[in-house]
């Protein structure tokens, strides 16, 4: 019995374009259904203008997410460090504008922008506490230094809590 998973064998004069036997075996295998209960999206950038090209997508997601499955966070790292008086003033003005108009001053979207870098340890701890015994995929695209930090944190959390984080580095 052929156990090939090649659904498209070479096309020849007497060869079918799709191997139906293989197709039936592949589609009738029992599959583990993964139910996504939440998605946490963190966009971290130095430049405020970087939010512009993604603005439409963020607003569309915010509008479509009626069940509050997706939680989005924007981080602008070029603004003063967290706890700085200037950063606190910007944060306060931004919060007032967001409450009044429903739009973030920095990103121009419905997603509020945080200033400084995310505290990834706190982020993962919060997710772990909300999802005990869950398997969480952490997908990252960016600088290798942060990839190493996130991979290390995922490994640390896996050793000390019931939530299991799987780190995936994306390359573009």
UniProtKB/TrEMBL annotation:
Domain Ferric reductase NAD binding: 32-154
UniProt KW keywords: Oxidoreductase
Pfam families: NAD_binding_6
Record has Oxidoreductase as a keyword: yes
InterPro entries cross-referenced by the UniProt entry: Fe_red_NAD-bd_6, FNR_nucleotide-bd, RBOH/FRE
GO molecular function, one term: NAD(P)H oxidase H2O2-forming activity
UniProt keyword Acetylation present: no
GO cellular component: plasma membrane
Highest taxon of the lineage: Eukaryota
Protein name: Ferric reductase NAD binding domain-containing protein
Species whose genome carries this gene: Aegilops tauschii subsp. strangulata (Goatgrass)
Organism lineage: Eukaryota, Viridiplantae, Streptophyta, Embryophyta, Tracheophyta
């Amino acid at each position: 019995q052929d156990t090939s998973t090649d659904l498209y064998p070479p096309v020849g004069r007497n060869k079918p374009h799709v191997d139906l036997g293989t197709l039936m075996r592949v589609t009738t295998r029992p599959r583990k259904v993964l139910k996504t209960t939440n998605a946490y999206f963190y966009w971290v950038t130095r430049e405020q203008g970087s939010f512009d090209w993604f603005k439409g997508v963020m607003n569309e997601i915010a509008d479509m997410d009626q069940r509050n499955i997706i939680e989005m966070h924007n981080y602008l790292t070029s603004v003063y460090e967290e706890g700085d008086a200037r950063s606190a003033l910007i944060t306060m003005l931004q919060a007032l504008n967001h409450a009044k108009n429903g739009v973030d001053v920095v990103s121009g979207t419905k997603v509020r922008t945080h200033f400084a870098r995310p505290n990834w340890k706190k982020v993962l701890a919060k997710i772990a506490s909300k999802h005990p015994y869950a398997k969480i995929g952490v997908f990252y695209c960016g600088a290798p230094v942060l990839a190493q930090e996130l991979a290390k944190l995922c490994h640390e959390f896996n050793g000390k809590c019931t939530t299991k984080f799987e780190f995936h580095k994306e390359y573009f």
